[in-house]
Amino acid sequence: xxxxxxxxxxxxEIRQAIPERQIYTDSLRTYAWGTDASFYRMTPQVVVRTKNxxxxxAAFKACKKYAIPFTLRxxxxxxxxxxxxxxxxxxxxxxxEQFHLDDDKNAIxxxxxxxxxxxxxxxxxxxxxxxxxxxxxxxxxVGGIVVNNASGMNCGVHAxxxxxxxxxxxxxxxxxxxxTGDEQSREAFRKSHxxxxxxxxxxxxxxxxDADLTERIRYKYSIKxxxxxxxxxxxxxxxxxxxxxxxxxxxxGTLAFLSSVRMxxxxxxxxxxxxxxxxQTMEESxxxxxxxxxxxxxxxxxxxxxxxxxxxxxxxxxxxxxQSVDDPVYLNYKKDVxxxxxxxxxxxxxxxxxxxxxxxxxxxPEGLKANIQEVMDTLSRFNLYGEPAFTDDPKxxxxxxxxxxxxxxxxxxxxxxxxxxxxxxxxxxxQDLPHATVDLQQLIARHGYKDACIYGHAFEGNYHFILNQSxxxxxxxxxxxNMMECMR
Length: 488
Ligand SMILES: Cc1cc2nc3c(=O)[nH]c(=O)nc-3n(C[C@H](O)[C@H](O)[C@H](O)COP(=O)(O)OP(=O)(O)OC[C@H]3O[C@@H](n4cnc5c(N)ncnc54)[C@H](O)[C@@H]3O)c2cc1C
Known about the structure:
Blueprint: H1 4-17, E1 23-24, H2 27-32, E2 46-49, H3 53-65, E3 70-73, E4 88-91, E5 99-101, E6 107-110, H4 116-123, E7 128-129, H5 142-148, H6 161-164, E8 165-171, E9 177-179, H7 183-192, H8 194-209, H9 211-220, H10 232-236, H11 240-247, E10 257-264, E11 266-267, E12 271-279, H12 282-293, E13 311-317, H13 319-324, H14 328-338, E14 354-362, H15 365-379, H16 394-405, H17 407-413, E15 420-427, H18 433-446, E16 453-457, E17 462-469, H19 474-487
Parallel strand pairs: 2-4, 3-4
Antiparallel strand pairs: 1-2, 5-6, 6-10, 7-11, 8-9, 8-10, 12-14, 13-14, 13-16, 15-17, 16-17
Helix pairs in contact: 1-3, 8-11, 12-18
Flavin-adenine dinucleotide binds at residues 36-37, 71-79, 82-83, 92, 112, 134-136, 140-141, 143-145, 147-148, 150-152, 252-253, 257-258, 408-409.
C-alpha cells in the first residue's frame, strides 16, 4: 500500500462497511499489533477488527479491488510470524466466540475466536475433550489452532484438527461463504463455482492415479507433518467439499477465512496416571518409548489405534530442558556425576540424563492398575536413573505436566540479552526415533549450540528444539544458516 491515493480509496471503502472504532491506523496501535509470539516484527498499515462475516467480506473485497495483501489473526500466538504483516491485518478474535454443542455431545461447532482452553472447560462436565492441545491452549483460539494444525502433548496425529474436523464454514477471498456441512450452501456453491470444484476433483484424480505418490502422501501424514499445505485430503476424501474443508487445516491463513468449524469431540478417560521416568542415556529413553508404543490392549490386534494403546503419551525432556526448570532429579544427578557415582560418566558431563513423562489412561481403576504394572514391567528392561513411580494424584501429575509445558517459556526467559529464542519442529517415524534423536542432539552440538534443548512429543516422533540465536553478526547468521541446511 505505497500509493497514497489507493490507500485513501481503500480506507474510505472499508470505513463504509466497518465501524471506525474497529479500524486502527495510528502508530501506537499498529505497532502493538506488529508482532505475534515469533521473533518477527512487521508493523501493519491498518488493523481491522472484524465482528462478523459481512465485515470480513468487506475487508476481502477492498483488499482484492486494490490488490492489497492481507493477513488473518486470531490470538497471535504463532511462533513463525505467520500472523504478522506490514500490510492489512484482519483480526477475528474477541466477538467470534459462539459455539454450539450437539445434544449427544459428540461434536461441537465453534467460531474462531474462542480459546482452546474455554472449549475444554465447556466440554469437561460431559466427560468430553477437544483434542488439539498446544501448550498455548489457554490463549490460542480455535481459528489459529485449526488453521495452524496446532497440537500438543496428547492429541498426536490420530486426533489432530485434520482428523477431528467434520465441516467448515469459510469465507473465500472472492467473498463467497461456503458451509461444507450445509447442503443448501453446497448446492449454491456447485452452481456458483463449478470450475472450482472440477479443478479440485481433477487434482484429486491426478494424485490418486499415481500409486507411489498416494502411498508417499499417506506415509508422510502418518507422522506429525504440518509442513506446507495439507494434501492428505486429496488421497483420503472423495467428496470435493471434504477436500476443501480439510485443506483449511494447516493453511496458515492463505486459503480462506474460517468462520466456524464443526469438530468431533472425544471421550475423556476417567482414570489416568503419569510418571516422570529418568534414563541414563537419550538413546535408551527412545528405545523405551518405542517399546511402550508396542503395548496394546489386545495383543492380537495389530492396529495401533489410540484407543488400544496402553500408554497414551510420552514426552521426552533432554538434560537442558530439565536444567531450564531446575528439575530436582536432574540436580541430584549432577551431584551423583560429580561424586563419580555414575559409571562411565566424567565429572561435569550431565548431557546423558533424559526424562520421559509418560501417561496411561483407562476406563476403570482396575484397568489403570493393570496398565501401570505392564508399563513398569516394560521399563524394568531399560537402564534407568532412579526408580520410576506412577501417580494418579492430579495435583502431583499436574505439576509434571506443568513442568513440561513450561519448558519453552523457561528456556526463552534464560536467553542471553540480544538473542532470539527460536523453536523448531522435527518429526520422525517412531522406529527411527533412537538413532534420529541422537543424530539431532549431535547435529545441534556440532554447530556450537551449547544451550539448545530438545524435548517434545516423542510418542509421535515429534520434537521441538530451542535455539537462543543472535543475528547480530554475519558469523551468527551463517551459523544458523548452516545448522538449518544440515537439518534439511
Ligand atoms: C508458549 C507457546 C506454546 C506453544 N505450544 C504449541 C504446541 O505445543 N503445539 C503447537 O502446535 N503449537 C504451539 N504453539 C504455537 C501454536 O501454533 C499457536 O499457539 C496457535 O496455533 C495459534 O493460535 P492463535 O489463535 O494464536 O492463531 P494466530 O497466531 O493468530 O494465527 C495462526 C494462523 O492462522 C491464521 N488464522 C487465524 N485465524 C484465522 C481464521 N479465522 N481463518 C483463517 N486463518 C486464520 C493466521 O493467519 C495464522 O497464519 C505455542 C505457542 C506458544 C506461544
